[in-house]
Write a structure and sequence with these properties.
Layout (H helix, E strand, L loop, with lengths): L1 H4 L13 E9 L9 E10 L2 E12 L6 H7 L9 E2 L1 H12 L3 E4 L2 H14 L9 E3 H7 L15 H7 L10 H20 L6 H4 L2
Parallel strand pairs: 1-5, 3-4, 5-6
Antiparallel strand pairs: 1-2, 2-3
Helix pairs in contact: 5-7
C-alpha cells in the first residue's frame, strides 16, 4: 500500500526540512472499542510555520453518539455538518498525513482511536513517529522548582500559559491550531537551552 511504502525513506534530522502534521480528533468518548471518531482536524507545520492552506478536516458519519460528550464538542447526531463515511475519511486522512511526524496533545489517545478505526476497515495502522505537546512542555520545566511540576497539562492550560486564543476550542481543527501554536512556543523555549534535533525531540 502506498502509505506504508512512504516509510522506506528516513526523516531528515534538520527540523526545517521535517513536515509535521498537527492532529486532533473529536470523539464520542474515551473507550477505544465502543466509542467512535466524530471529526478529524489536522494542520501542516513546516519550517516553524503553520501552512494554513495545507489543512485537513473531516466529519465522519457515525451511529454512535453520547449526550455527555456532545456538551463538549457540540457535534450532535442531527448536526448540519457535511459528513462522509468513516472509511473514506480515514483513507483521505492517510493520504494527507503521509510519513509526516505527528504532533498532538495527549497524542496516544488520538493515535489509538485512529488505529482502532483503521483496523475496523482493514487499513494499515499508523506508522508515523509522534510528539506529544504535554510531554514536550514538561521538558521546558525540568529545572523548575519540583513543587511547581505537574504530572499532566491540559490543552486549556497550555493555551493560558502561552496566551493562545481558545476561540475555536473543542473543534478538531481549532484544537489542532492551538496545539500547533503551543508546539512552536515550546520549541522556542527548548531552543533557548540547546540545539534541538528531531532525534532529541523523539527521545
Amino acid at each position: 500500500m502506498r502509505y506504508e511504502a512512504l516509510f522506506e525513506k528516513k526523516q531528515p534530522e534538520d527540523l526545517a526540512s521535517v513536515r509535521f502534521v498537527v492532529l486532533d480528533t473529536e470523539t464520542t468518548g474515551f473507550d477505544f472499542e465502543k466509542d467512535r471518531i466524530l471529526s478529524i482536524g489536522a494542520l501542516t507545520l513546516l519550517n516553524d510555520k503553520i501552512q494554513v492552506a495545507a489543512s485537513f478536516s473531516a466529519y465522519l458519519e457515525q451511529r454512535v453518539h453520547s449526550p455527555e460528550t456532545v456538551k463538549i464538542h457540540g457535534i450532535r447526531k442531527d448536526n448540519d455538518k457535511v459528513t462522509i463515511p468513516e472509511s473514506e475519511a480515514l483513507q483521505n486522512f492517510l493520504d494527507f498525513l503521509g510519513n509526516s511526524v505527528i504532533i498532538a496533545h495527549h497524542a496516544l489517545f488520538d493515535i489509538k482511536m485512529i488505529n482502532r478505526a483503521l483496523e475496523r476497515w482493514g487499513l494499515p495502522k499508523l506508522k508515523n513517529k509522534y510528539l506529544d505537546t504535554c510531554t514536550l512542555y514538561k521538558k521546558t520545566r525540568l529545572r523548575s522548582n519540583l513543587l511547581q511540576q505537574q504530572e499532566n497539562y491540559t490543552l486549556d492550560e497550555l493555551a493560558d500559559i502561552f496566551h493562545i486564543s481558545k476561540k475555536d476550542r473543542h473543534t478538531a481543527l481549532g484544537d489542532a491550531y492551538i496545539t500547533a501554536i503551543a508546539f512552536l512556543k515550546i520549541l522556542a523555549k527548548l531552543r533557548e537551552k540547546r540545539n534541538v534535533t528531531l532525534k532529541w525531540l523523539l527521545k
